Amino acid sequence: MKNSKLMILLRGIIMENPVLILVLGTCPTLAVTTSLKSAFYMGIAATAVLVCSNAVISALRNIIPDTVRIPCYIVIIASFVTVVQMLLEAHLPEAYEMLGVYLALIVVNCIILGRAEMYARKNNVINSILDGIGMGLGFLLALMLMALIREVLGAGSFWGYSIPFLENYKISVLAQAPGGFLVFGILIAVMNKLTEKRGGVKRKSFSCDGCPSAHLCNKTSCNELTELAANDGEGEVKADD
Amino acid sequence: MTKYILILMAGVLVNNYVLQQFLGICPFLGVSKKFNQASGMGIAVTFVMLAATAVTYPIYTYILAPAKLAYLQTIVFILVIAALVQFVEIVMKKLLPALHKSLGVYLPLITTNCAVLGVTLNNITDGYNFIESMISSLGVGLGFLLAMVLFAGVRSRIENCPAPKAFRGVPITLVAASIVALAFFGFSGVVENMLGGV
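Output (structure tokens, whole complex):
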């Protein structure tokens, strides 16, 4: 029993890392990883919201009617985000400034809604809290890893302190927008390579299973899109004939 | 007038939400495989952004701010956007079935698109008035459309390329996005220079 609880906690950190394996929550991952500090604050803020919302959603899982569950989840998540916003503004104004609009955008972070939909509504409170901590730490670690690469190589500094040699040879593009995409792409490729030997990890991204909006469209949108694409393909072939 | 053009062009090119500010990455990577889907998604997002701004701006200015409830903006805005998307879908289905058939499939996916919530929040933070907010939303929406369409073109070529095995799928797409973002760097300063010259 103890073992399984530990598994729930560890799963989010490595095997089902929300960022590097499931490819969820890409927006904050790319946006706040220009410095270690902002990545750390973002990871902590998102973890706090994730743990609280998982706990509450799990506790209310038998009360919330299935048909209106998404709006309910959004209200719960948004409430916790507001709490975190107010706390940071009062006690850590530096973090509040640094994260800016991305702090409010934790509301639409796919990881949080995704865990509510995939885990918290089917499991008890304690497991949901553990899952929230695990997933949150996984998110935090992935953010820190990316920020480490981008800050050290891109800005030649570590946690805001400049590194003697590197600061003269910084690759400043890494700290800017294109560098975010590049580092993220390469990190996922490295993860692919590392997990390849162990049979590879089944990615759930870009399909209905990994999409937190899947329930909103009852998995119809993507299927219709695929059909549209298929029809387009046929149309093109005909046109070529 | 110059100010409006600047706000518009900033949204489209300089501060492109997808490529420079990393908002709305999920649809950017998920729905950009085909040109038709990419443009459809782009148009739907632009439309929802305009509608969301038209609703959230008055709510903030005339209800939340005077009542000193500004801290509720996150909750209120996301609920308004979610309700609005549903409403638009129902109305569109009833009144414009043809348009619903082509854009309707994208609508449910837009609720959790952070670019829509982002633009409504940013309009408030930037202190724009109503017209400026609408223009800013239009610019951001068009910028999203531009990025989607450009990237769909890039991506249709990547799909046929023999990338290294570990890079196939998501990683190579992100690397391509990085190069497109780099290209957008060329626009910074251009708009100001052009208008300054006139």
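Residues 6 and 167 of chain B are 39 Å apart (CA to CA).
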